[in-house]
Amino acid sequence: MASNINVDSSPAFAHIPPWVKAKLRPIAIEKIQQVYDWVETEIIPAERIFKAQIKDKRWQNPPIVHELRKKAKAQGLWNLFLPNHFEESPGLTNLEYSCCAEIMGRVYWAPHTMNCHAPETGNIELLAKFCNTEQKKKWLHPLMNGDFSSAYSMTEPDVASSDATQIGIKMEITDKEVIINGRKLYGNCKYNDEVQVFILMGCSDPTNPNPWNRHTTLIVPSNTPGFKQIRNLTIMGYDCAPEGHGEYIYENVRVPKENIILGPGRAFEIAQGRLGPGRIHHCMRLIGQAERAYELALVRCIEPRKKPRGKFIGEFDSNIERIADMRMTIDAMRLVVLNAADTMDLQGNKAGRYAIAQSKIMVPNALLKVIDEAMQMYGGQGLTQHTPLPEMWTYARFVRVADGPDSAHRHQVGRDQMKTAKDIRARAEEYTRRYKELCKKWGQEPEEFWGIV
């Protein structure tokens, strides 16, 4: 059944490339328009209400979010991220969801109103992919229903967690339970009592000769005895309430053995299944943040109260060029993200790892610059709470290290590309061999090439 929405005239589709529009099914077109209308009419006008409501109750989700979550759920704007190969999916492809996620990203907390926020998206996809029937009933279905929230706990303060084989929190697996001891960083703040589940990665078999089989992933209820939060971690000075980022200690924490996901020693298999989608979701939302920053810059360009030397700031050549660079950067980064999403749909998360890494490396770096330029156009006000720009910039900077720092992804991409060097050198040698044959044919003396074959 065709959609009645005209994708060539609706502002919801204004920045979606033609090749993507051609792939959108009617269900996706309807959802993209719904999400656009939701963010424009329900979320952006409520930004200052949200801020006011969390001012005195930092670690409680504000009443307006609870109200909007009920309303969004009733409208079918719920769990849109889960890919369509899961039975629990609402039916969108990764590419189609990308278009929704960008719009959600225009306001940091907008995805939360649709149960499409981090880390929920990655965690729900993990549980849907790897949990058994009983685990799904106990943990997945309540998360999908929005009954409580979850956290993902992987990073540690005492090791270089960018090499995940070094993760060292101890897990002793007995016949009936898992006993946990160690420290963790990140994972949403336990001060918010809606966060009731932590998905924990730890070392259960430290002497295993294969370092990729030493670790286990399991579910830890947040109220488990011995599981303590030391403090909330600020990000560039922001406490990121009401979700936050905790610093944790586990002291003889005991959870039932049946809380192990997939099986002992299979944490890396699980992590790779989770981190691909999680990484790309961050980048999808960041495109929306950058679009919002760009729009704020345009608003500033024609602000009548701000006319240095009697001119709108948008009339200065330097700012005209700045706007052009911002526009082109966002459009280019959108193509990178959409390509990654489409690759995941066509070839799977594992085959799409280069495109995912490309997004993770390029998008936050490029869009940091876009948001920074918007801040620059606002002058001193651009550094204050007068606009959402500083928080947008901080989120973009955070995404550079969320789910792994740039250098780790660059190393992976570079290592994979080096594997192609042998075949490419063989091709170059064949070019030279063929060149020498042509020299004989045409009676020309071959030239020596220094530095190439």
UniProtKB/TrEMBL annotation:
Domain spans labelled Acyl-CoA dehydrogenase/oxidase C-terminal: 268-415
GO CC term, one of those recorded: cytoplasm
Molecular functions per Gene Ontology: acyl-CoA dehydrogenase activity; flavin adenine dinucleotide binding
Listed cofactors: FAD
Highest taxon of the lineage: Eukaryota
Location of the Acyl-CoA dehydrogenase/oxidase N-terminal domain: 34-147
A Pfam family: Acyl-CoA_dh_N
One GO biological process term: fatty acid beta-oxidation using acyl-CoA dehydrogenase
Family stated for the protein in its record: Belongs to the acyl-CoA dehydrogenase family.
Protein name per UniProt: Acyl-CoA dehydrogenase family member 11
